Amino acid sequence: MELKKNPKADLSKRSGLFFVIGLAVVMLVVWQALEYKKYDKVKQYDTSMDVDDLLDEEVPMTEQIKTPPPPPPPAAPEVIEIVEDEEEVEETVIESTETSQEEEVIEVEDVAVEEEFEDVEVPFSVIEDVPVFPGCEKESDKKKCFNSMMQKHIRKHFRYPEIAQEMGIQGRVSVMFTIQKDGSIGNVRMRGPDKNLEKEAARIISKLPKMTPGKQRGRAVKVPFAIPITFKLQ
Protein backbone atom coordinates (compact mmCIF):
# COMPACT_ATOMS: atom_id res chain seq x y z
CA MET A 1 0.00 0.00 0.00
CA GLU A 2 1.43 3.32 -0.97
CA LEU A 3 1.74 6.18 1.42
CA LYS A 4 -0.35 9.17 0.42
CA LYS A 5 1.87 11.70 2.16
CA ASN A 6 5.32 12.75 1.17
CA PRO A 7 7.83 11.83 3.86
CA LYS A 8 9.55 15.19 3.31
CA ALA A 9 6.32 16.96 4.14
CA ASP A 10 6.11 15.48 7.68
CA LEU A 11 5.72 18.48 10.00
CA SER A 12 6.07 16.54 13.22
CA LYS A 13 9.82 16.53 12.80
CA ARG A 14 10.06 20.31 13.61
CA SER A 15 7.28 20.57 16.18
CA GLY A 16 9.79 21.02 19.05
CA LEU A 17 11.49 23.92 17.24
CA PHE A 18 8.17 25.60 16.53
CA PHE A 19 7.17 25.19 20.20
CA VAL A 20 10.37 26.86 21.40
CA ILE A 21 9.96 29.72 18.92
CA GLY A 22 6.35 30.26 19.97
CA LEU A 23 7.28 30.21 23.65
CA ALA A 24 10.00 32.80 23.05
CA VAL A 25 7.57 35.07 21.20
CA VAL A 26 5.00 34.81 24.01
CA MET A 27 7.64 35.65 26.64
CA LEU A 28 8.75 38.66 24.58
CA VAL A 29 5.20 39.96 24.34
CA VAL A 30 4.63 39.49 28.08
CA TRP A 31 7.91 41.28 28.90
CA GLN A 32 7.02 44.21 26.66
CA ALA A 33 3.60 44.42 28.33
CA LEU A 34 5.16 44.54 31.81
CA GLU A 35 7.72 47.16 30.81
CA TYR A 36 5.20 49.39 29.08
CA LYS A 37 4.84 52.79 30.81
CA LYS A 38 2.38 55.54 30.19
CA TYR A 39 3.31 59.15 31.06
CA ASP A 40 0.89 61.99 31.72
CA LYS A 41 0.85 64.90 29.40
CA VAL A 42 3.09 67.76 30.49
CA LYS A 43 0.96 70.69 31.50
CA GLN A 44 2.08 74.17 30.71
CA TYR A 45 2.45 76.42 33.76
CA ASP A 46 3.22 80.05 34.28
CA THR A 47 6.96 80.52 34.72
CA SER A 48 6.33 83.86 36.39
CA MET A 49 5.38 81.98 39.59
CA ASP A 50 8.84 80.45 39.84
CA VAL A 51 10.42 82.24 42.80
CA ASP A 52 13.54 80.09 43.09
CA ASP A 53 15.63 82.71 41.37
CA LEU A 54 14.38 85.37 43.74
CA LEU A 55 15.52 83.40 46.73
CA ASP A 56 19.00 83.03 45.29
CA GLU A 57 19.54 86.77 45.19
CA GLU A 58 22.11 88.06 47.63
CA VAL A 59 20.73 90.23 50.40
CA PRO A 60 22.87 93.30 50.97
CA MET A 61 24.33 93.56 54.46
CA THR A 62 23.33 96.54 56.55
CA GLU A 63 25.90 99.21 56.98
CA GLN A 64 27.57 99.54 60.35
CA ILE A 65 26.18 102.46 62.30
CA LYS A 66 28.96 104.79 63.21
CA THR A 67 28.57 106.72 66.44
CA PRO A 68 29.59 110.34 66.29
CA PRO A 69 32.87 111.14 68.05
CA PRO A 70 32.59 112.69 71.53
CA PRO A 71 32.79 116.46 71.71
CA PRO A 72 36.25 117.85 72.42
CA PRO A 73 36.97 118.84 76.04
CA PRO A 74 36.63 122.50 76.89
CA ALA A 75 39.77 124.48 76.44
CA ALA A 76 41.70 125.41 79.57
CA PRO A 77 41.63 129.06 80.53
CA GLU A 78 44.68 130.95 79.50
CA VAL A 79 45.00 132.88 82.78
CA ILE A 80 44.77 131.09 86.14
CA GLU A 81 43.34 133.31 88.83
CA ILE A 82 44.61 132.79 92.36
CA VAL A 83 41.88 133.33 94.95
CA GLU A 84 43.05 134.17 98.43
CA ASP A 85 41.52 132.21 101.32
CA GLU A 86 40.01 134.88 103.49
CA GLU A 87 38.26 132.53 105.92
CA GLU A 88 39.94 132.18 109.27
CA VAL A 89 40.46 128.66 110.62
CA GLU A 90 40.03 128.24 114.33
CA GLU A 91 42.91 126.51 115.99
CA THR A 92 42.08 123.53 118.17
CA VAL A 93 43.52 123.95 121.63
CA ILE A 94 44.23 120.71 123.47
CA GLU A 95 44.04 121.26 127.18
CA SER A 96 45.93 119.11 129.61
CA THR A 97 43.88 116.62 131.59
CA GLU A 98 46.27 116.63 134.53
CA THR A 99 44.86 118.17 137.65
CA SER A 100 46.72 120.87 139.46
CA GLN A 101 47.27 120.90 143.19
CA GLU A 102 44.95 123.87 143.54
CA GLU A 103 41.91 122.05 142.12
CA GLU A 104 39.73 120.10 144.51
CA VAL A 105 39.25 116.40 143.85
CA ILE A 106 35.71 115.16 144.38
CA GLU A 107 35.57 111.68 145.82
CA VAL A 108 33.22 109.34 144.01
CA GLU A 109 31.39 106.77 146.03
CA ASP A 110 31.74 103.12 145.11
CA VAL A 111 29.45 102.29 142.21
CA ALA A 112 27.71 98.96 142.50
CA VAL A 113 28.33 97.07 139.27
CA GLU A 114 25.49 94.68 138.61
CA GLU A 115 26.82 91.32 137.55
CA GLU A 116 25.53 90.19 134.19
CA PHE A 117 24.19 86.67 134.27
CA GLU A 118 24.05 84.94 130.92
CA ASP A 119 20.93 83.03 129.97
CA VAL A 120 22.62 79.65 129.79
CA GLU A 121 21.42 76.09 130.17
CA VAL A 122 22.88 74.07 133.03
CA PRO A 123 22.64 70.26 132.76
CA PHE A 124 20.56 68.44 135.36
CA SER A 125 23.55 66.40 136.54
CA VAL A 126 25.74 69.39 137.48
CA ILE A 127 23.29 72.09 138.53
CA GLU A 128 23.56 73.34 142.09
CA ASP A 129 19.82 73.34 142.89
CA VAL A 130 17.90 70.84 140.76
CA PRO A 131 14.34 71.56 139.63
CA VAL A 132 11.82 70.43 142.23
CA PHE A 133 9.06 68.10 141.06
CA PRO A 134 5.74 68.77 142.82
CA GLY A 135 5.73 66.57 145.92
CA CYS A 136 9.51 66.60 146.42
CA GLU A 137 9.73 69.90 148.28
CA LYS A 138 10.41 68.25 151.67
CA GLU A 139 12.74 65.53 150.39
CA SER A 140 16.42 65.79 151.24
CA ASP A 141 17.59 64.16 148.01
CA LYS A 142 15.55 66.15 145.50
CA LYS A 143 17.41 64.74 142.49
CA LYS A 144 16.49 61.16 143.39
CA CYS A 145 12.91 62.21 144.13
CA PHE A 146 12.73 64.00 140.76
CA ASN A 147 13.72 60.83 138.86
CA SER A 148 11.27 58.73 140.91
CA MET A 149 8.38 61.11 140.24
CA MET A 150 9.20 61.17 136.53
CA GLN A 151 8.92 57.38 136.37
CA LYS A 152 5.58 57.47 138.21
CA HIS A 153 4.30 60.13 135.83
CA ILE A 154 5.25 58.05 132.78
CA ARG A 155 3.60 54.88 134.15
CA LYS A 156 0.45 56.82 135.04
CA HIS A 157 -0.08 58.39 131.61
CA PHE A 158 1.42 55.62 129.46
CA ARG A 159 -0.79 54.28 126.66
CA TYR A 160 0.49 51.99 123.92
CA PRO A 161 -0.68 53.28 120.49
CA GLU A 162 -3.15 50.82 118.97
CA ILE A 163 -1.75 51.20 115.46
CA ALA A 164 1.72 50.39 116.76
CA GLN A 165 0.37 47.29 118.49
CA GLU A 166 -1.34 46.10 115.30
CA MET A 167 1.83 46.60 113.30
CA GLY A 168 4.00 45.02 116.00
CA ILE A 169 6.16 48.12 116.46
CA GLN A 170 8.16 48.44 119.65
CA GLY A 171 11.34 50.13 120.81
CA ARG A 172 12.80 52.95 122.88
CA VAL A 173 12.03 56.62 122.37
CA SER A 174 14.61 59.10 123.66
CA VAL A 175 12.86 62.21 124.95
CA MET A 176 14.67 65.49 125.57
CA PHE A 177 13.06 68.63 127.01
CA THR A 178 13.99 71.78 128.89
CA ILE A 179 12.68 72.97 132.24
CA GLN A 180 12.38 76.71 131.68
CA LYS A 181 13.24 79.44 134.18
CA ASP A 182 9.59 79.71 135.14
CA GLY A 183 9.26 75.95 135.74
CA SER A 184 7.34 75.18 132.54
CA ILE A 185 8.31 72.48 130.03
CA GLY A 186 9.58 73.49 126.60
CA ASN A 187 11.79 72.57 123.65
CA VAL A 188 10.53 68.97 123.59
CA ARG A 189 12.38 66.68 121.15
CA MET A 190 11.92 62.95 120.45
CA ARG A 191 13.83 60.30 118.57
CA GLY A 192 12.48 56.79 118.20
CA PRO A 193 11.77 53.91 115.80
CA ASP A 194 8.27 55.06 114.84
CA LYS A 195 6.31 58.32 114.56
CA ASN A 196 3.38 56.90 116.53
CA LEU A 197 5.64 56.04 119.45
CA GLU A 198 7.23 59.49 119.32
CA LYS A 199 3.79 61.11 119.31
CA GLU A 200 2.76 59.15 122.42
CA ALA A 201 6.01 60.11 124.19
CA ALA A 202 5.35 63.79 123.42
CA ARG A 203 1.83 63.47 124.86
CA ILE A 204 3.20 62.01 128.11
CA ILE A 205 5.73 64.84 128.49
CA SER A 206 3.05 67.45 127.78
CA LYS A 207 1.21 66.20 130.89
CA LEU A 208 4.11 67.14 133.20
CA PRO A 209 3.15 69.65 135.91
CA LYS A 210 4.84 72.99 136.40
CA MET A 211 7.94 72.65 138.58
CA THR A 212 10.14 74.79 140.76
CA PRO A 213 12.91 75.89 138.36
CA GLY A 214 16.51 74.88 138.89
CA LYS A 215 18.95 77.45 140.23
CA GLN A 216 22.62 78.12 139.62
CA ARG A 217 24.37 80.58 141.94
CA GLY A 218 20.99 81.57 143.32
CA ARG A 219 19.45 82.43 139.93
CA ALA A 220 16.83 80.50 137.99
CA VAL A 221 18.25 78.88 134.85
CA LYS A 222 17.09 76.58 132.09
CA VAL A 223 17.76 72.91 132.79
CA PRO A 224 17.79 70.37 129.92
CA PHE A 225 16.68 66.86 130.85
CA ALA A 226 16.57 63.57 128.91
CA ILE A 227 14.74 60.33 129.71
CA PRO A 228 14.03 57.17 127.66
CA ILE A 229 10.51 55.74 127.31
CA THR A 230 10.44 52.06 126.34
CA PHE A 231 7.53 50.61 124.35
CA LYS A 232 7.51 46.81 124.59
CA LEU A 233 4.80 44.42 123.48
CA GLN A 234 3.81 41.66 125.92
TrEMBL record:
Record GO terms (molecular function): energy transducer activity
Membrane topology term: Single-pass membrane protein
Pfam families in the cross-refs: TonB_C
Similarity section: Belongs to the TonB family.
Coiled-coil spans in chain: none
Gene3D superfamilies listed in its UniProt record: 3.30.1150.10
Full protein name: Energy transducer TonB
Domain of life: Bacteria
Location in the cell: Cell inner membrane
Domain TonB C-terminal: residue ranges: 145-234
InterPro entries noted in UniProt: TonB (IPR003538), TonB-dependent_transducer (IPR051045), TonB/TolA_C (IPR006260), TonB_C (IPR037682)
Keywords linked to the UniProt accession: Cell inner membrane, Cell membrane, Membrane, Protein transport, Transmembrane, Transmembrane helix, Transport
